[in-house]
Design brief:
Layout: H1 3-6, E1 9-14, H2 24-41, E2 45-48, H3 62-71, E3 77-80, E4 83-84, H4 90-103, E5 108-113, H5 120-126, H6 136-148, E6 169-173, H7 176-184, E7 188-190, H8 196-209, E8 221-225, E9 227-229, H9 233-253, H10 262-266, H11 272-282, E10 286-288, H12 290-304, E11 308-311, H13 318-331
Parallel strand pairs: 1-2, 1-11, 2-3, 3-5, 4-5, 5-6, 6-7, 7-8, 8-11, 9-10
Length: 339
C-alpha cells in the first residue's frame, strides 16, 4: 500500500444524478444510501451539490440534503460542494449552516462556489443575474462576517444561530477563485484533473498568496476529480461512459440528461461532434483496477501536494458505484482487506 495515499484524506462528493427510468426522489435516496456506506468505509467527508432545473441532477437544495445525510450518519463530516453563493443572500446561507452546525456540531463543512444560475431563465427564477457573480469576494466576506459578528453591511441584524459558531468554509475554485481563497485564508477545493497544468498553476498561486485567517492558519488543498475503480481497467472505463455521454449531449443539446447504461451508450449513433465530445469526456480521469488507481492517485498527490482528494464519480448503476467506492477504500487503506 502507498504510504502517501494512506496518509491522505479521501472524501466523496455526490451530485444526486438521476438515472434513466428513475426520478429525482430515487436519486436523493441513493445519495443518502451512499453517505451511510461512505461512513462505514472510512471516508473523511461526504458532500452534496447544488444544481437548478437540470433534468439529470436532483440535488437542488444542498443544505436540506446535507441535513438528511447528517441525520443518518454519526461520524463522517457532511457538507456542500457547494452552495453557490451568488444564488443566495449571505444571511440566509449563514442561517442555514448555523442550523446545521447546531444540530450536528463539529461535523458540518460549508463548501462554497462562485457559479450563478446556469441559464437566463434559471437566473430570472432565482432573482439573480450574471452580475451577482462579479462581487463574489464581497459576498464571501459578508457571509463569513455573519459567523464572526464582524459584518458591517447590516449592523442591526444578527444571523441566528450562526453568530459565534465556526463552520469550516471551503472555496470551490478554478482560476481567479484560487486567488480569492488565498486572500480570504480559506481551504481550496480545485479540479478537475483534466487541465492539470492550469490546476497546478492555480494551486501554486494559492499557496504563494495565502494569508492566515481565523478559518485556517495554513494553505489546505483539496483536489477534486473522477475516480472509477473496478476489477479491470476496461470495466472501470465503462463506469465513466454514461457521464461522458451526458456531458456530450448537454454540450450539443443544451440539456444535461439522466444517465443511461453503458450498453445504451454503445448502441447510440453519435454525430461527429458528439463523438468528439464523448471521447474527450472519457479522458483525463483516474480509472482502473485498484493497483492502477493507487498509482495514478499517488502521481496526482506528488504533482499537486494536495492534502485531500475529493472523489466526484457518477455511474448509471448505483451498485457499480458502491463497488467502486469500496474498492477505492480498500486500496487506500480506509478499510480492512475483508471489508
Amino acid at each position: 500500500m502507498s504510504a502517501l495515499i494512506a496518509a491522505t484524506r479521501i472524501s466523496l462528493l455526490d451530485r444526486s444524478r438521476t438515472r434513466e427510468g428513475q426520478g429525482g426522489p430515487q436519486a436523493l435516496r441513493d445519495t443518502v444510501r451512499l453517505a451511510r456506506e461512505a461512513e462505514a468505509l472510512g471516508y473523511h467527508r461526504f458532500w452534496v451539490s447544488e444544481h437548478h432545473s437540470v433534468p439529470g441532477v436532483a440535488g437542488s437544495a444542498p443544505t436540506v440534503l446535507a441535513s438528511a445525510v447528517a441525520a443518518v450518519t454519526s461520524r463522517i463530516r457532511v457538507g456542500t460542494g457547494g452552495v453557490m453563493l451568488p444564488n443566495h443572500q449571505p444571511l440566509v446561507v449563514a442561517e442555514q449552516f448555523g442550523v446545521l452546525e447546531s444540530l450536528f456540531p463539529g461535523r458540518i463543512d460549508m463548501g462554497l462556489g462562485r457559479s450563478v444560475g446556469f441559464t437566463d431563465g434559471i437566473r430570472r427564477a432565482l432573482g439573480r443575474d450574471k452580475k451577482d457573480a462579479e462581487d463574489f469576494a464581497g459576498k464571501l466576506e459578508e457571509l463569513l462576517g455573519w459567523f464572526t459578528g464582524e459584518q458591517r453591511a447590516h449592523p442591526q441584524v444578527h444571523a441566528r444561530p450562526a453568530e459565534g459558531l465556526r463552520v469550516p468554509p471551503y472555496l470551490l475554485a478554478v482560476g481567479e477563485g484560487a486567488d480569492i481563497a488565498a486572500a480570504a485564508g480559506l481551504p481550496l477545493v480545485i479540479g478537475d484533473l483534466k487541465g492539470r497544468d492550469k490546476v497546478l498553476a492555480a494551486i501554486e498561486r494559492y499557496r504563494a498568496g495565502f494569508r492566515p485567517s481565523v478559518w485556517s492558519d495554513a494553505p489546505y488543498v483539496v483536489v477534486a476529480g473522477t475516480v472509477a475503480v473496478a476489477g479491470t481497467e476496461e470495466a472501470a472505463r465503462r463506469l465513466l461512459m454514461p457521464e461522458a455521454w451526458a456531458g456530450a449531449y448537454s454540450r450539443t443539446h443544451g440539456v444535461f440528461p439522466p444517465l443511461i447504461s453503458p450498453e445504451s451508450v454503445e448502441a447510440l449513433t453519435m454525430t461527429a461532434k458528439e463523438r468528439t465530445l464523448y471521447e474527450s469526456g472519457l479522458d483525463g480521469h483516474v480509472h482502473g483496477d485498484e493497483e492502477q488507481v493507487v498509482d495514478a492517485l499517488e502521481s496526482v498527490l506528488k504533482d499537486t501536494g494536495a492534502d485531500e482528494i475529493l472523489v466526484t464519480t457518477s455511474a448509471h448503476d448505483v451498485e457499480d458505484l458502491l463497488d467502486s467506492h469500496r474498492r477505492l477504500a480498500r486500496a487506500a487503506g480506509l478499510t480492512s482487506p475483508d471489508a
